[in-house]
Amino acid sequence: MKNWLYILSLIVIASCDTDQVDENPEKPDTDQQNDNYFSEDEIIRSIEAQLRIPATEKYTYKIYEAHLTADDSIDRIVTVNLLDRAINEAMESGKTAKRAEMGYMGNYNYFFYIDGLTQQITSPIVVPSSPLAELKVDFLNITSDQYLDFTIDTKIMLSSFRKFYTIQNSIPMQTSETELYTDIGTADEKLYAVKYEPGSFSMGKNIVIYEGTTEQVDLSKPDAIYELDIKIEPTDKLVRRWYYSPQHQKYYLKNSEI
3-state class of 32 per DSSP? Predict the structure, then answer.
């Protein structure tokens, strides 16, 4: 798992599916409801076309709204989960039991970004993980106080990871990644809590990782880990501190602190 600490990846690919949940029931301001507004029906058609989802394939999607750029428009993040595809491909491979044991890990979770100003939707961005857990999206001020960045939490078997994104030139750029927990519920369990502090070298906040604690996790039920919302509290033991570089639009570690 140590290799995960320093790998920052952004992988673009294509895919899509249909149960709908709108995470923000409030509609954009009326001045955004113009002829160019990318409607929900258009979103569905776009993700189904780009991810090549046939009418017979089930899928789920969620739409999040947030102010993610320096303009005054409301942007959207659309997550897509292809669990049905993962299960079907496992059955077709003849390795259903093995794939199920690994949580059907693969390219079955995606997200799209819709720019509020241009109403353009990106190509699908794959987030390799277990489709038994949908992507968890949160918004917060990290690289700027003027607009929001977003994080995406994923699960891979007994581990969970958080990816950090900011929007640059209408494209989501991954700026960092950290573990939230690894091998949870086992003797090798490691827990991490994420905190933020004023930036040391820029307006972007430092991302500070501490060792964490949580209540005992009950994994007696099959696939329980994918349903649990595990709350991790920080201890006072610092693990690492990430610093933001506006020039490179990435977070980095100090050599002296590695």
Answer: helix
